[in-house]
Amino acid sequence: MKKLIFPALTALTLIVTSGFDKFSEIDEKKLLSYKIIDANNISTVIWNDGMLDKHWSGSSAGFEWPKGTGKTAIYTSGLWLSSKVNDSIRVSIYYYNSEFTPGYFDYASQTAQGYNDPAYRVYKVSPDFPSGNSEYDSWNVWPVNQGAPWIDNNNNGIYEPPSDSPLLKGTQNFFCSFTDGYLPSGIVSRPAPPLRAEIHLYAWSKEFSNCADAVNYEYKIINKNRNAWTDMSAALWSDTDLGTSINDKAGTDSLLNLIFVYNGGNVDPIYGTAPPSVGYVIKEASGHGLQKSDYASKWGCPEDCPIDSLQRYRVMHGLRVDGSRWVNPVTNTQTNFPHSGDPVSQSGWIDSTQGERYCIIGSIFGNVLPLDTIEFSMVTFIKRGGNNLLSVAELKNCVSSVISVNNQASELSEDFMLYQNYPNPFNPSTVIGYQLAVSSFVKLIIYDVLGKEVETLVNEKQGAGTYQVEFDTRQVSRQGKGLASGIYFYTLKAGEFTTTKRMLLIK
Ligand SMILES: [Ca+2]
Ligand SMILES: [Ca+2]
Ligand SMILES: [Ca+2]
Fold this sequence. Notes:
Strand content: 35-45%
Number of domains: 2
Number of helices: 2
Radius of gyration: 25 Å
Number of strands: 36
Bound molecules: calcium ion
Low-confidence stretches: 2-26, 405-413
Oligomer: single chain
């Protein structure tokens, strides 16, 4: 999408640089800031008003892949919310301009606050403290008072870095707080009243072992309205422009909770042959006693393009703009996931034309009581395969592998972990798993019951992530003999982290 004119373009010349915190007064009131996410081969931009993937200049595509090439796959994207309050429709969206502002929503006074307070900027921290790189913030200024997630290592409720730390899921970690709570006569013009939501966005990115190029967005959305939200929905909307925008296609995968965009042919004027595929997946959607369902939709304006609050509310509830259900023309069944066929095998309901594509994927959370919080986590992936369609296949492979690994890890811990070996007792081999919160120099050593080293399984620097190593006694020999039955210990040393577990060999 290149044809939209931004009313704020003139004001964008007023970009103020304060250290490495850049502010631009887009409407002379809202104090915008941004940080760059580039932990892997993606380089993109996170803003403090719900806007994502918009270039820092404010006037061009911001999701660059591969980073440094100037080639972009997403023009811009951002958060969409909708609900009913006492039967009236509430919609708050980012759609080239944002109906959100930096700040928070004060429940007692029922007023939004902080739109021009420089404290409500985007914060960026790394696992290294202090980093010595002024693009990063010190852990000392991580805004725990705004709701930024952190680890209370000594469990006293007080944030005391560096012994306490920000939550560090990635090698780059971000936080900002924003709200939709300014009324129509306020900072932005808006066709529907706000939900009165306060949103905490924690974003992170890192190098995965396989599918490196992903960015994680974890939203906590708090109902600061004195009334319940009814049929509340949260979504990520995107104007994907995969290289050249006019030859794109889109599709969904209801099992993976994925929406993806791929090039209509195997050649894109910007990406050349074998263009990548970019997608958004719902990683988590949860809250208090909520009944949730998911949906995704693509559209190519003017076809099915939602242009007012009612139509946007419908799209955010899995419907077409006219309020009807999507019907899969191949199976003749109703669905919340249109174009869910497989473009690789050309089977099922696939996007039959190519052109400008927009997409949205989200979750319906049902009723949200005052001061309840819902959690909505999204991941953006990009992947290139042997041709435009194999890019889709590889993207899906990445989504299914990385998302399952992440889910397993998040249920256990976001920290260093050493898992019990499996099987145990064992003979002749067993598998030891462990998790690294950050990139570390790792030693995994087997000891016998006397403390004598039996074998070193790992002795190298490894990136953050989950690992499995096999311990095979047949490959260990002591004076020509195998290992005796009995208790053995295995010790993981990763940076400052050390822990030991025991296992039993029974021959
Ligand atoms: Ca503490
Ligand atoms: Ca394209
Ligand atoms: Ca597009």
